[in-house]
Amino acid sequence: MKILHVVGARPNFMKIAPVMKAVGRAGFAEQKLVHTGQHYDVSMSDVFFSDLGMPLPDIHLGVGSGSHAEQTAKVMVGFEKVCAVEQPDLVVVAGDVNSTLACAIDCAKLRIPCAHVEAGLRSFDMDMPEEVNRIVTDRLCDLLLTPSSDGDENLRREGTAEDRIFRVGNVMIDTLLDHLPRARQTQSRGRLGVHPGQYAVLTLHRPSNVDDEKVLRGLLAALEQIQRELPVVFPAHPRTRKRFEEFGLAAQVAAMPGLLVCEPLGYLDFLGLTSQAKLVLTDSGGLQEETTALGIPCFTIRENTERPVTVSEGTNTVVGVDPDRIVTEARGALAGRGKAGRIPQLWDGKASERIAQVFSSWWSRRLAA
After folding, report:
1. With contact defined as beta carbons under 8 Å apart, do 31 and 20 qualify?
2. What is the CA radius of gyration of the chain?
3. Exposed, middle or buried, 339 (CB in 10 Å: 0-12/13-18/19+)?
4. Which residues, listed in sequence order, are joined to residue 60 by a DSSP beta bridge?
5. Pairwise pLDDT comparison (225 vs 64), residue with the higher score
6. Rounded to the nearest 5°, which phi and psi values hold at 207?
7. Would strands 30-35 and 59-60 be described as parallel, antiparallel, or unpaired?
8. Can you give 182-217 as a three-state secondary structure string?
9. Residue 54 banded pLDDT, cuts 50, 70, 90
10. b/e for 311-336, b at 16 or more Cβ within 10 A?
């Protein structure tokens, strides 16, 4: 059996790495890794291969940045050519980035079976480009590998056949548990001068937060208050830095002594940092899951989440973009009132093994048909 795994942006790496390892251990398939290059920055991409122990990509499409339409189209053109040469038996895509959507469309047109890791997640917010990607990808893929029961229910509600749905658990947690001991040995805290349990971590990159000047100013007003009470480590996404300059906010950011702005970090450095934080403020999907697994209070700076299990069972609270609420919730966590939560079912570090079993059984059935 030949499997092509696709990565395009940094969240994909944490989802595909454990799957490739599990399939490799099972020994039933030849695997190749395709990097679309949707996000390509050495600090945000290349270091992930070494951090996660992934093989270097066999194929690199070099798509680069661009509008949603440009990226999707470039990936479709490039990946179609790869499929013509490689003739895979199965393509594996993950998450909700443009590369995921593009490759799923190619596979549907070429009649190549496609599996979606992290299927079934829904924010029910069509203003999010990622929501469009999730819905279309799940409609087109043959094997839908869900992380939690809400994913199963979302797919059923959309009329998905039961034999396409496989609840396997959360592969992000496989990666986290596998690398946590080594991550905690990194020097990221020391370089930033913070101590375990005495700082917050912030990520901020979604267009709805950073491209709207009024929203971004409000978020900075909240951070102004929080950073007075404990240091806030902020690995700043290039997009966010650019908006600070465009909106004339760079001086305000620089004037906050407790807001420790740094370059984006590799996976191990970032995990080492977040795993020892007092609390996390984020608009990232993956961090909502990781903080739930780590038992760290998380405040999601969005109006909704496609990962509701992190709220209903985990440590996550969706706080929106209202500065007063963000400050109130952060102060509550500092006072010991943050959510404790529990780890959801099948977030046990073995999701990738279950995925490998799904692929193996699926392939056996095809051979027998």
Report:
1. yes
2. 20
3. buried
4. 35
5. 225
6. -55, -40
7. parallel
8. HHCCCCHHHHHCCCCCCCEEECCCCHHHHCCHHHHH
9. confident
10. bebbbbbbbebebeebbebbebbbee
> Which two tokens mark 265?
């970090």
For this structure, is 179 an active site residue? no
Residue 99 CA, chain-centre distance (Å), reads 13
- Which of these is catalytic: 5, 179, 205, 237? 205
Output the CA angle 66-284-97, nearest 5 degrees: 40
List, for residues 117-159, the tens digit of each pLDDT value: 999 999 999 999 999 999 999 999 999 999 999 999 999 999 9
**Distance in angstroms between the alpha carbons of the first and the last residue of the chain:** 15
Model confidence band, residue 64 (pLDDT cutoffs 50, 70, 90): confident
Q: Residue 215 CB: number of other CB atoms within 10 A?
A: 16
Starting at the earlier edge strand, list the strands of the sheet with 232-235.
259-262, 232-235, 200-202, 279-282, 298-300, 316-318
Percent of the chain with pLDDT over 70: 98
CA dist 205 → 12, 60, 119, 202, 320 (Å): 16, 25, 23, 10, 14
What would the two tokens of residue 291 be?
């903080």
C-alpha pair distances (Å), 188 with each of 14, 191, 206, 270, 274: 19, 5, 24, 8, 10
Predicted confidence at residue 248, as pLDDT, reads 97
